[in-house]
Inverse folding.
């Protein structure tokens, strides 16, 4: 009995330390003001969803979150549906393994993107998002339903969605890049910190979705 208690204390302590390590990790984000689950009213959660939706449907995010034709976009604010030049098709692998692979041009590197019109580089291997995460041609309600469904969001619960952002920030992944895409590209609206806070508010409110 005593042994079990001690073991669970050790486990609890290392979990807490794990969280602390994450909180103080390399992501550079401020986690101190994030709300706890159950402390946010649904209306506030819905307002945060509106901000999240504006980010997700910006070309910086949308260009990779495309449908089953597997064709990445070169969308801009003026021409959101413009498709990738060079006849690129990512195939079912979503990394172009069947043809010309993404990293033939898109390097995996945390160096800043300083050259306009060069293939963007991030700290993660460049690829399309899985087809279940398609956000092109989807309503706000449809995207919201997908985002909160573990069967269609990579098995993530509320904490998992937040964790995903922190992990991305540590690696300088796709979300982090979208807010700081370098020369010649319009950043996603707001900042990574604001997006994290909106996601924390939305998840703490129980992930409410708009009607429709
Ligand atoms: C032959 C080189 C090449 C290959 C291979 C390639 N790309 Fe690109 N990609 C580029 C270049 C160059 C740009 C920047 C174009 C510009 O800004 O005018 C780009 C831009 C993009 C963008 C737009 C980024 C943004 O939001 O502005 C996406 C998305 C993208 N590529 C996805 C992919 C995916 C996914 C693959 C693999 C299936 C891939 N690319 C393979 C050269 C390539
Ligand atoms: C270079 C392509 C690319 C860009 C740009 C991109 N993503 Fe993704 N996204 C991916 C890939 C690949 C995955 C799957 C990997 C994973 O699940 O961790 C993913 C998964 C996700 C997920 C988890 C699954 C889900 O739908 O719930 C979220 C949330 C997400 N991205 C948000 C964003 C946001 C927000 C932006 C813009 C600020 C963005 N992504 C830009 C490629 C991209």
């Amino acid at each position: 009995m005593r042994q079990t208690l001690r073991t669970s204390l050790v486990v609890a302590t290392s979990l807490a330390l794990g969280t602390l390590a994450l909180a103080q990790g390399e992501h550079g984000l401020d986690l101190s003001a994030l709300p706890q689950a159950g402390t946010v009213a649904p209306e506030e959660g819905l307002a945060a969803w509106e901000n999240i939706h504006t980010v997700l449907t910006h070309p910086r995010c949308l260009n990779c979150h495309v449908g089953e034709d597997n064709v990445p976009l070169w969308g801009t604010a003026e021409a959101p549906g413009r498709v990738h030049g060079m006849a690129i098709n990512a195939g079912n692998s979503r990394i172009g393994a069947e043809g010309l692979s993404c990293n033939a041009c898109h390097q995996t590197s945390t160096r800043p993107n300083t050259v306009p019109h060069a293939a963007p580089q991030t700290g993660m291997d460049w690829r399309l998002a899985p087809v279940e995460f398609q956000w092109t041609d989807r309503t706000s309600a449809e995207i919201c339903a997908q985002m909160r469904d573990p069967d269609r969001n990579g098995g993530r619960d509320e904490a998992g969605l937040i964790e995903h952002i922190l992990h991305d920030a540590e690696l300088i992944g796709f979300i982090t890049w979208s807010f700081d895409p370098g020369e010649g590209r319009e950043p996603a609206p707001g900042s990574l910190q604001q997006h994290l806070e909106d996601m924390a508010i939305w998840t703490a409110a129980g992930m409410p979705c708009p009607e429709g």
Observations:
- Residues 59-60, 63-64, 72-74, 84, 86, 88, 90, 96, 100, 102, 104-106, 117-120, 126-128, 185 surround heme C (ligand 1) (CB under 6 Å).
- Residues 36-67+107-204 form one domain.
